[in-house]
Amino acid sequence: MKGIEKSFDRNQVLHGVDFTLKKGSIHALLGENGTGKTTLMNILGGVLPRDGGRVFIHGEEITITSPHMAAEQGIAFIHQELTLVNDMNIYENLFLGCEIKHGIVVGRKEMAKKAAEILSLMQVNLSPHTMVRDLNASYKQVVEIARALMKNARVIIMDEPTASLTDVEIEHIFTIMRSLKEKGVSFIFISHKLNEVIEICDAYTVMRDGRVVASGSIDNSGQEKISENDLAKHMVGKELSYDDLYVQRELGGVLLETKNLSRENEFHDINLTLHKGEILGVTGLLGDGRSELFATIFGCNPKYGGKILLNGKEVKIHSTRKAHRLGISYVPRNRKENGIVKDLSVSHNMSLPILEKLRNFLFISRKKERQSNEYYVNALNIKVSDINNSILSLSGGNQQKAVLAKALGSLPQIIILDNPTQGVDVGAKLEIYSILMELSKQGVSVVVLSSEAQEILRVCDRIYVMCEGEIRRELSRSEATEEKIMVLATGGTLSDETQTA
Ligand SMILES: Nc1ncnc2c1ncn2[C@@H]1O[C@H](COP(=O)(O)OP(=O)(O)OP(=O)(O)O)[C@@H](O)[C@H]1O
Description:
Bound molecules: adenosine-5'-triphosphate
Keywords: ATP-binding, Cell membrane, Membrane, Nucleotide-binding, Repeat, Sugar transport, Translocase, Transport
Helix content: 25-40%
Organism: Fumia xinanensis
Strand order of the largest sheet: 6-9-10-3-11-12
Pfam families: ABC_tran
Protein name: Sugar ABC transporter ATP-binding protein
GO molecular function: ATP binding; ATP hydrolysis activity
């Protein structure tokens, strides 16, 4: 891609971007939130028209004005939200819209055979007759890749492909990517997880404010391999350090407590405590029950067994409205489905939980609304050209910051954050952690749910590791390590437990 230009109204997003992808390589496209990565790839994938610049494949200029034309050129874009139909099987999904037909008869056997060939090319042991709803998240990604290959894709663009996958699932996808790379398929890998970039990518391009600021090979041909820190420095333009982030504090008494909290098939006999001003981490593998547990504490699931106590008194939290009234706020795991209201502006999304506070008699005070929103736009450094534009006009990471702002706006005494830094760049992650630390100093209790052990270890005072719906063990900050968390999360036992036993 050469000299790519793109503006949205008067906001110029791409300023003459050059991007080169080699055959059979996995190339990381990196940069802070809102820097133009998805926009650049939307242009390559024919989703958006460009204002200027040219695109070449094997040195030959090509025209792409629609996803269909991109597919004809062998370019496939796998978006963050997968587009499979759960109620169809794998081969039906692969051939959706391009079914093999003989007259009016659909060639089911042929389609299943072709699908089986593609899956075996990817060395995946899956029957093409498996229903998509029965697949786990990584196999769904696999089917998306298979669909790209079916269309003879030579270039596969993956936008944050590992955001909702477990470590084991991520390794599974990486193995498939490596084997396809050997066969000459190239990948563009957009990600904020720099450890994964170092592990899987051969080359990188870093963008800042719509321009390329660095590019090169990850391995550096025999010289020292580029580090996560080097990449982060290119992205934010300065050294990032987590050293001064965590501050030891005097915590208050127990604010929230659960006694044998249970929900069928989700979690059971949960006895936990949360202190005033504490940052509590809850971790495990995807499907360990933590999201369901805290969604219940926030009133999303009215039927539960056991007790929830606030300040030592039992409270029945059968609705989210009740949770709000008790001073609990919540950032849900899946931003697109549960975090944002797609039809509303950035401003109205942020104001939703605080409409009562913004009221002047019968009306919403636009002045109060603007003041509150401006405060959080600045505090969280949300990149937005006009706060009255649709929330969808924000980049993924900035949408996530807006969801956080929404949760903070109600000035809660407890804030529950499920996967709070999904899609958020390294610099912004540090800003968000610092905000959590500040809140805790002011006495707010914070619960961070995350499967990223690093995230949990950076900010949390205390950690619960969950496995298969139960709390496997509580770890203090000083004893917790990534290894211990992984052992417990996968159902293992620590050496001190075996000794006691
Ligand atoms: N449809 C649109 N209308 C208006 N502005 C848009 C639109 N799509 C993107 N933008 C703006 O373009 C800029 C770049 O967005 P883009 O999604 O490309 O960023 P990104 O680098 O992919 O960020 P992230 O890492 O957060 O996903 C952002 O400021 C965003 O607000």
